[in-house]
Amino acid sequence: MGRPAGMPVRPCILIPVYNNARTIEKVVRGVRAYVSDILVVDDGSTDATGATLDRLASAGLLQLRRLPCNEGKGVALATGFAAARDSGFTHALQVDGDAQHDLSCIPSFLEAARRDPQALVLGFPVFDDSVPWIRAQGRKLSQFLVHVETGGRVITDPLIGFRVYPLTATLAAGARGRRMDIDIEIAVRMVWMGTPVINLPVGVRYLSADEGGVSHFRMVRDNALISWLHVRLLVESVRRRLRPAARQGQGRR
């Protein structure tokens, strides 16, 4: 369950990346304005991302872990969490490699983690006019379902990839998602295990293709994965609520 309040917080930046050749260096150099310890997990990129990361790693600007093939965001994050813990970090601030996030929010997120080292610090997006309408509307369904699964409005937004993870609690949560379903599952499971949550705003801008914007969200595959995840979480949440009632009933016999 994270570290007790008052214990030192040693954070790193964790960036899972796949085929973001035109934006990854900008992201790395941007986060270095705030945190010098950067761990990048290359999820089997097939474009020029790998060469860029090799150059930045050789210059001492980041630590690099590379997966031999594309296994999904969930696998990349799990690899990063374990590597960060093994390197002695207590927290990992996840930033996506697509340059959508307002990196000037990093200090406020890390300050929240220092005030409450046990907390999961989740970003919620403040979109500008670049957000696709269908993406904005689709988030609302996941937000509603997560509120049902957690029994309240604990999580403002379950999808954004800008958040600070307390590593001990994160690894103990046992999330198994391998792709885009991981952000939702890990947040819900950490709430279930009693991790406090802090929600903070972060600006999000969708880049145009000319700016290097690229989406790896596969509409059919990833929506199917997320839908199946919500089915499992809803069933599990009902079971969790029924267990205390069942124990009380057995106690009255």
As for the number of domains, it is 1
Helix content: 40-55%
Derived from helix and strand composition plus strand pairing, the structural class reads alpha/beta
Mean pLDDT equals 88
State the assembly state of the protein chains.
Answer: single chain
Q: Report the uncertain regions.
A: none
Number of helices: 8
| Rg estimate, integer Å | 18 Å
Name of the level-1 CATH class: Alpha Beta
User: Spatial order of the strands in the main sheet?
Assistant: 3-2-1-4-6-5-7
Query: What is the straight-line distance between the termini?
Result: 35 Å
Beta-sheet strand percentage?
Answer: 15-25%
By CATH, the architecture is named Alpha-Beta Complex
Shape field: globular
- Give the CATH topology: Spore Coat Polysaccharide Biosynthesis Protein SpsA, Chain A
Give me the count of strands: 7
